[in-house]
Write a structure and sequence with these properties.
Radius of gyration: 23 Å
Low-confidence stretches: none
Strand content: under 5%
Shape: elongated
Order of helices and strands: HHH
Number of domains: 1
Largest sheet: none
Length: 80
């Protein structure tokens, strides 16, 4: 396993010391994993859109159609 050292502002270090019951290593490890998952998803998304032929105007029109369809459905179900 790798060890990581961080530089913190004095004020933050004081707060961390005050909250000694928090498992900071586990908290940071979990947050790093979440951030890595977000980056991975974004990279997959970028690969998909690089292949897309959808223009910005086409995307706007598609969004409008989806909103209209959703509105009609909500109206039929009595929510609107």
């Amino acid at each position: 396993m790798v060890s990581v050292t961080l530089t913190l502002a004095d004020e933050l270090k004081e707060e961390i010391n005050r909250l000694s019951w928090v498992n900071w290593s586990e908290l940071i490890r979990c947050e790093l994993i979440k951030e890595k998952e977000k980056i991975d998803k974004f990279e997959r998304f970028k690969k998909i859109i690089e292949k897309s032929k959808l223009t910005e105007e086409g995307a706007i029109e598609l969004a409008r159609k989806l909103k209209r369809g959703r509105f009609k459905r909500l109206k039929q179900e009595g929510y609107v």
